[in-house]
Design brief:
Order of helices and strands: EEHEEEHHHEEH
Distance between the termini: 51 Å
Largest sheet: 5 strands, mixed
Length: 195
């Protein structure tokens, strides 16, 4: 397999063609935060926490490092002002709904002490679910069970059990250790039955 040469934070390195920027960085001990990356799963780019700034020639742009492939001559910066501004905003958005574990650690790392966003506590409570999709993707890609999925869109999006799959999900528990909240969300909702 061919290799490419790139720079990450000024450090030149070689990586196999087809490797993602996140994989190349991790192979060199360079930490890029992420909530949705897991080695056994196909990259999804769902959380956007692994955003980095790349430069090719004179053009600079932001990309999601877990899905962006390495290229010859690519220059990557993992902690620019633009990147950190996005990460802080993502953390602020997640703090009201998932105020525990990795989100708190990221808030501390990036100096986010409070959030401008609030939950309407009359309608909802924190779920500790960052909607990273690890449980959904693990169930589909590794287990082949399709017992959980996403229900709703936008601010109403939730992880829910698929009809008739509750027992499989409760007894399997293999995705529990992947959950960013440190425990699997006990889902109160189930997808509505189709007529």
């Amino acid at each position: 397999m061919n290799t490419v040469t790139l720079k990450i934070n000024g450090k030149e390195l070689n990586a196999k063609e087809g490797t993602t920027v996140l994989e190349a960085a991790r192979s060199q001990g360079i930490d890029i935060p992420t909530l949705c990356a897991y080695d056994e799963l196909e990259p999804a780019g769902a959380c956007r926490m692994c955003m980095v700034e790349i430069t090719r020639g004179k053009k600079t742009r932001l990309v999601t490092s877990c899905v962006y492939p390495v290229e010859n001559g690519l220059e990557v910066q993992t902690e620019t002002d633009r990147v950190n501004k996005i990460r802080k905003m993502l953390i602020e958005l997640l703090l009201p709904v998932a105020p525990s574990g990795p989100i708190n650690a990221l808030a501390k790392r990036y100096g986010v002490e409070k959030t401008r966003f609030k939950l309407d506590t009359a309608k909802e409570a924190p779920t500790n679910c960052s909607l990273c999709g690890l449980c959904v993707r693990y169930c589909e890609q590794v287990k082949g069970e399709y017992a959980v999925g996403f229900l709703g869109r936008g601010v109403n999006r939730k992880v829910a059990l698929l009809p008739g799959k509750g027992d499989e999900c409760v007894f399997c528990r293999q995705c529990y250790s992947l959950c960013n909240s440190g425990r699997f969300i006990e889902m109160a909702e189930v997808f509505p039955e189709q007529p």
